[in-house]
Amino acid sequence: MNRIYILKRLILDLFYPNRCGMCGCEIPFDEYLCNTCVNLFSSADKNVFIPYVDHFTAFAVYDSFGKEFAGRFKNDGDGYAISGAAYLIYKALVKGDSSVLNETDIITYVPMRKRDIYKRGYDQCRLIANETAQLADKPCIGLLKKIRNTKPQKTLTAEERSVNVKDAFSCLKEKTVKGRSVLILDDISTTGSTLSEAARTLKNAGAKTVNAAVFAKTRLYFDSVSADKKPD
Ligand SMILES: [Zn+2]
Hints:
Elements: H1 3-15, H2 35-38, E1 55-61, H3 64-74, H4 79-95, H5 98-103, E2 106-109, H6 114-120, H7 124-136, E3 144-146, H8 158-165, E4 169-171, H9 174-177, E5 181-189, H10 193-204, E6 209-217, H11 219-224
Parallel strand pairs: 1-6, 2-5, 5-6
Antiparallel strand pairs: 3-4
């Protein structure tokens, strides 16, 4: 883990004792949630197949507790929850297949439309990706651009979602991507179709491998995609 990041948190803790972002109890300086609260998340360690994504990592299942926490960084502009989400994704990456972080050259994120960023006031995926990159000591670079309007994915069926995001992205930095291993971060994944399209765009631009990591994936997705389903 990045030493400057740890030092910053240690100094902050001297003045403001660190507290759990959910229940408020005092916790060690380098944590964001207490163990009791972390254990309330449903673990999502089952691997699933997403086309064009070489390896997928999710910290938790998007159930009621996951939703409550995600609401803080998605809707409430809670910076502590954004840092917490990045920390939990980083821990899930460290705990998972070690090759993912080892081989990552660049961390990037699923882009939001300018209009949506303006409405919300911030881009939580970019912020989470930035913090995860700091923890992992990797560069965070915006590699993708949304090039056409799409409908909100949550209003669509699984089939409609794939069609909705088809050709929705372009790669901003083909020279940077060529031959590199990219890790895409997103906050919530439902069917994986957005991540799949983002990964396809990066592979078309010459990326060697494209892995993906999210804070949470929905139960629907968790249950509907077989763990041992492999590409042909
Ligand atoms: Zn707690």
